[in-house]
Amino acid sequence: MFIQTESTPNPATLKFLPGQEVLGLGTADFPNPEAAMPSPLARRLFQVAGVTGVFLGSDFVTVTKAEDVDWAHIKPEILGAIMEHFQSGAPVMEGEAEAVHATHDGPDSEIVGQIKELLDSRVRPAVAQDGGDITFHGFERGVVYLHMKGACAGCPSSTLTLKMGIENLLRHYIPEVTEVRPVAV
Fold first, then answer.
1. Most CB atoms closer than 10 Å: which of 15, 61, 88, 149?
2. Structural domain that includes position 68
3. Do the Cβ atoms of 22 and 58 come closer than 8 Å?
4. Model's pTM, two decimal places?
5. What is the pLDDT of residues 6-34, one digit of tens each?
6. What does each C-alpha distance from 128 to 56, 114, 125 come to in angstroms?
7. Do the bridges between strand 143-150 and strand 179-183 make them parallel or antiparallel, or are there none, so unpaired?
């Protein structure tokens, strides 16, 4: 098994491509070891000293490290953990996957549908290339709230991505959108 690695815009995060499907559809974000209970792969990766976050995409695994840890020291152990997991035949996730976007009912449901469609068709595929994901969290009084996951969480360029990229895109296609803000979940 050959696992490729790619750098991301976030220096604390690396993207690992095992050359096979990881989740297929959807994503899973594990910002700490406690959150990793539904994923045998994420639990295994958190056993590597210095790993502070794991994000699973369709065909990739994004790992975030502590600031005081050097990639040269933990990358081989992470590669080994990913390889061992896939060779073991254990599932990546146990149980049901959660919904990608938060649900939103009410008078703005048509606008929210348009927002989710633009996120799914234009934003999420591009962000996945960098090892992350951005999902809808809420919409209130013209403000779109988005949850940044994987390499996007804590990335130095995330504010620029939100304001110059996503906000401009949504405002262009949906006049009711006035601003985009990140949320911490």
1. 61
2. 4-88
3. yes
4. 0.75
5. 998 889 999 999 999 998 777 888 999 99
6. 10, 20, 5
7. parallel
